[in-house]
Amino acid sequence: MNIQNEDIRPQSNLEDNREDGLSPTEKNLNTNYDNEFVATPEYIDTLPDLQNGDSSLIRGSKKQIQHVGISNFKMPLKYKNLDGDILTLETSITGSVSLEANKKGINMSRIMRSFYKHSQDTFDFEVIENALNDYKDDLDSGDARIQVRFSFPMKKKSLRSNLEGFQYYNVALEVVDVENTRSNIVHLDYVYSSTCPCSLELSEHARTERGQLATPHSQRSIARISALIPTDKPFNIENLVFLCREALPTETQVMVKREDEQAFAELNASNPIFVEDAARLLCEKLSEFDGVADFRVVVNHQESLHSHDAISVLIKGQTFNQTSLDPMLFNSLNHSS
Questions:
Q1: What is the C-alpha separation between 194 and 305, in angstroms, rounded?
Q2: Strands (E), the chain
Q3: Mean pLDDT, the chain, as a whole number?
Q4: Distance between CA atoms of residues 324 and 154, nearest Å
Q5: pTM to 2 decimals?
Q6: Cα separations (Å) of 32 from 26, 37, 81, 98?
Q7: What is the C-alpha to C-alpha distance for residues 209 and 234, in angstroms, rounded to an integer?
Q8: CB 183 within 8 A of CB 317
Q9: Do residues 30 and 23 make contact, with C-beta atoms less than 8 angstroms apart?
Q10: Which residue has the higher pLDDT, 140 or 208?
Q11: How far apart are CA 119 and CA 33, in angstroms?
Q12: Among 78, 86, 87, 273, which has the highest number of CB atoms less than 10 A from its own CB?
């Protein structure tokens, strides 16, 4: 038997294929947003809450999760500089808690609400700890972590012309609470110029031996300082920047005239540096500074001679000691905020 152009779909499907495109169930629903509706406490109590559901709803292994929360939640927060001025800076916030093996999930909005509760405070480690206490208690969690990231401005004078401009430093303040032990940690990116000592010597050799003009290669370089801050010690960002400037004086410049550019060339020639030197010089200054305890120095010289970078990592203490490094760690060292 030949069947031509005969629709053999079930009758129910034919009924659903109407011009309005709505199923019978959808047709009975109100499709207009109700501006007048009020969510009463009684109504809210009827709303489903899957995240706080029974452990039978857990998918996958019933294992503890060390970090669950939010990342890159942004809001303007206040910080105080060394002169006592209050700066309002756009801040990216990462907040997480541990999740017990028998719990389905957390209410992540509570982390955000904890920060809005402190939004008028001037942020430092103490205020971050207060925010952490709030959402740790609110979420009934054993461990909790907060990291706030921002770009911190500091005025910097030129080398000879006495012009002044703002240098910006990528900074993160972190509070970690693991098994009721608190750690206050700072991360700072310091950007400087590195002149290769080998290239400098070879350039001078060409000049003196053959009368050949040659220039050493130098490049923009970045050191990321991660340091454990003793809870009984005062801390401010500027002092850590000053320490970096002492260790590596060839910081990139903001306002530059001809006399400043010449001075910068002379300063680089006076401070030729390999990537290993940079890590050790920073280690020397950090070790002398009682404002930090354990620390890690990650250095990236973004080579102008090679098509690859030169890197070094130096660690003191157990806080930052680890077997494996993030495979994108060195790529993350750049001059963007």
A1: 12
A2: 65-80, 86-99, 144-157, 164-178, 181-195, 218-229, 295-301, 310-316
A3: 89
A4: 34
A5: 0.86
A6: 12, 12, 51, 41
A7: 55
A8: no
A9: no
A10: 208
A11: 32
A12: 273
Spatial distance between the Cα atoms of 337 and 332, rounded to a whole number of angstroms: 11
Residue 67 forms beta bridges with which residues? none
DSSP code, position 54: -
CA distance 224 to 247: 13
Give the list of residues 6+ apart from residue 212 with CB closer than 8 angstroms, or none. 206
Q: Residue written as tokens 């010597």?
A: 201
Q: Are 156 and 216 in contact (CB under 8 A)?
A: no
Considering the four listed CATH numbers 3.30.70.260, 3.20.20.140, 3.80.10.10, 3.10.270.10, the one that applies to the domain covering 150-337 is 3.10.270.10
Q: What is the largest CA-CA distance in the chain?
A: 101
Residue-level length of the chain: 337
DSSP state of 33: -
Q: Where in the chain is the domain with CATH 3.10.270.10?
A: 150-337
Under the banding of pLDDT at 50, 70 and 90, the label for residue 27 is low
